[in-house]
Amino acid sequence: MSNEDKSAVVATRWWWVRHAPVRSDGGNIYGQKDIDCDTSDREVFEAVAKILPRNALWYASNLQRTHQTAAAIWATGFPKPANMLQEAAFAEQHLGAWQGMNRAAFIASRPVGSHWFADISEPAPGGESFMDLYNRVRGAIERVNVEHAGRDVIAVGHGGTIKAAIGLALGGQPERGLAFDIDNCSVTRLDNFASTGRSIWRLPMVNQQPWIADVRHAAMHQPAGPEIVGETKLA
User: Which of 66, 70, 88, 156 could staple 62 via S-S, CB 3.0–4.6 A?
Assistant: First the structure.
């Protein structure tokens, strides 16, 4: 590639933040239920705020837990943006009739070693498949990459949403995105490099938890929420 060609490459940097832990679900699958989250762990949000870029474009899903998480980051003194764009395409997978079911019992009914609730092409009754989620997330990301090329984009989303974004960055392999853990409040950075007729991705960091080095935070990590049962992560 010539120097002239290199100068035409535009980098758009995505900083994905998973919402804070949900404590009020009663151990049930919540999917797209608009349930709130716990933002009381200030040390976590202070640490996240330190690594996020200023002057970024902010996005969140249409579910309140992403908005609460963004507000907790701003409450640390992080410069609040003039506005945060709401993108319904970044919502969690709609799990239909599975929403409200006991999570541990449901996961126990699935094949051992499953990365997600079901095969990527299997829709929840009355809901979506992971491929449905992947396709809507991909479409929104590709649109933002064109409309806001060259920007830093902070997107507060959900575990499934971020796994879908990783699958896109891995060359459009959604199933591989499911192999990654995405803990609550973690930061995942995915960089898109675009030039005429070409688009490639790099993954500088996935599931980064910057608060683990803070001696004030005894837990060392922010549990992924109700997916954790004892010492075993089920989904």
Answer: 88
- DSSP string of 139-206, one letter each residue: HHHHHHHHHTTT-EEEEEE-HHHHHHHHHHHTTS-HHHHTTS---TT-EEEEEEEEETTEEEEEEEEE
Instruction: Please list the residues that pair with 195 across neighbouring strands.
Output: 198
Name the DSSP letter for residue 115.
S
Q: For residue 106, how many other CB atoms are within 10 A of its CB? A: 17
**Average pLDDT score over the chain:** 90
Cα 183 to the center of its chain, rounded Å? 9
The predicted-structure confidence for 7-48, as pLDDT tens digits, reads as follows 689 999 999 999 999 999 999 999 999 999 999 999 999 999
Q: Which residues pair with 154 in a beta bridge?
A: 15, 58
**For the residues of 15-36, what is the DSSP string, one character each?**
EEEEPPPP--STTB--TT----
Bridge-based pairing state of the strands 152-157 and 10-18:
parallel
Residue 5's contacts (CB-CB under 8 Å, 6 or more residues apart) are: 195
What is the H or E stretch that residue 208 is in? strand 198-208
Contacts 24+ apart (CB under 8 A), 2-7: 5/195
CB atoms within 10 A of CB 176: 15
pTM above 0.70, yes or no: yes
